[in-house]
Amino acid sequence: MKLVVGITGASGAPYARATLAALVAARKTRPIELAVVLSSTAQEVWSTELEGDLEEHVRSLDIPVFRGRDYRAPFASGSAKWDSMVIVPCSMSTVARIAHGTSDSLLTRAADVILKERRRLVLVPRETPLSVIHLENLLTVARAGAVVLPAMPSFYARPRGVDDVLHSVVGRILDQLGLDDPRTARWGTPAKEVP
Ligand SMILES: Cc1cc2nc3c(=O)[nH]c(=O)nc-3n(C[C@H](O)[C@H](O)[C@H](O)COP(=O)(O)O)c2cc1C
Description:
Layout: E1 2-7, H1 13-27, E2 33-38, H2 42-49, H3 54-60, E3 65-67, E4 84-90, H4 92-99, H5 106-116, E5 120-125, H6 132-143, E6 147-148, H7 162-176
Parallel strand pairs: 1-2, 1-4, 2-3, 4-5, 5-6
Helix pairs in contact: 1-7, 4-6
Bound molecules: flavin mononucleotide.
Flavin mononucleotide (FMN) binds at residues 8-11, 39-42, 44-45, 48, 91-94, 126-127.
């Protein structure tokens, strides 16, 4: 499986960090080739919400990082056959640009490629409230085949802290990617203790 993770300048850097951690854990049990592509504002929001440098963090996980308009990245072409892309968190600006096929950065080009190849694109917006423009753009991308998975945590599993709240979204992201996160609380199933 070849999976690219896009990170934009929407609030929700902790979702990006938790998703990367879950994917790195999933990579231990099955072969997953991971790559990360950053928008030009991703770092700014990361340093506002978390400690440290985003690019260094990704490299410390042994994942290659791309940015800007580096259209020579492998997933910039459909012929490279990348299976899936998740954009977490996904800003409304990026949703708008994907909805209109601008491909004005590597990140939006990668999403455009996934859609044209009819592969799996999962968008995790965080904005609230949503304007009619946001809703129309989200509908456009959903009609084009993207899964819109808002960062809306659930509470029925009684989260014990921020990590559990984050994982109630991250688990749903991995579900959409065809992967399993052992921490995912499933309705009707007793919670598993994950160290
Ligand atoms: C701290 C911070 C939080 C932000 N949160 C959001 C957000 O939750 N949703 C959103 O759509 N934009 C948010 N923005 C605005 C985006 O960063 C801005 O629209 C930017 O142009 C997005 O570009 P990108 O999609 O290329 O990353 C935030 C900006 C900052 C600095």
